[in-house]
Design goal:
It is a single chain. The protein is an alpha/beta fold. It has a domain of 107 residues: Hypothetical Protein Ychn, Chain: A. 33% of the residues lie in helices and 24% in strands. The protein has 6 helices and 7 strands. The strands form 2 sheets. Strands 6-5-4-3-7 form a 5-stranded parallel sheet. It has a two-stranded antiparallel ribbon with strand order 1-2. The longest helix is centred in the N-terminal third of the chain and has 16 residues. The two termini are 20 Å apart.
Length: 177
């Protein structure tokens, strides 16, 4: 990211002095519980940590599925309404009973070939690397979830205001998935 530091003028022409600003912290908000969305958030958080960037994750609404003990390793991929999934396939085929489970199985099989960690393992890695994982209080209340329903790496259940406080400071980027 580049910011204009100052506008200076010389005898011949104006000149802009540029200064590069580095991302110091990311706050990744995951609001969806489909396999591809959750992995996008996990990959970004893990990548940030590997680059020395502070990473915090906030899971809300259906994204909570990714951090519950019951569902974390049982996420599915979206087949209906996803134009990038098998282009050219009629929506009616993608909606057939059992097709989403089959597609999810195939996607997980390909991920295993690439040695991509399962959701719970990915979350453990992010936690071990210093990343922080939070659940949204409003969504948790809506779905009647308590702290004990979440994976042990979930640091706390917090409000949206608390989430914005996590982003406090210069150099913070918020990423919404």
């Amino acid at each position: 990211m580049i910011d204009v530091l100052e506008n200076t003028t010389t005898a011949s022409k104006p000149a802009l002095v540029m200064k590069e600003k580095k991302v110091k912290k990311v706050l990744i908000i995951c609001s969806k519980g489909k396999l591809e969305d959750v992995y996008a958030a996990l990959v970004m958080a893990n990548g940030a940590l590997m680059e020395g960037i502070e990473a915090k994750m906030f899971f809300t609404f259906f994204g909570l599925e990714a951090i519950t003990k019951k569902n974390a390793d049982h996420l599915h991929t979206a087949t209906v309404g996803n134009p990038a999934f098998m282009p050219g396939m009629p929506t009616v085929v993608a909606g057939l009973p059992g097709f989403e489970a089959f597609a999810s199985y195939m996607m997980k099989k390909e991920m295993d070939k690439l040695d991509i960690p399962h959701v719970t393992e990915f979350i453990e890695m992010i936690d071990a690397a210093g990343g922080e994982i939070y659940a949204c209080k409003l969504a948790a209340d809506m779905f009647h979830l308590k702290k004990e329903d979440f994976l042990p790496e979930v640091k706390d259940i917090i409000t949206v205001g608390d989430m914005y406080a996590l982003a406090d400071g210069e150099g913070t980027q918020i990423v919404f998935v």
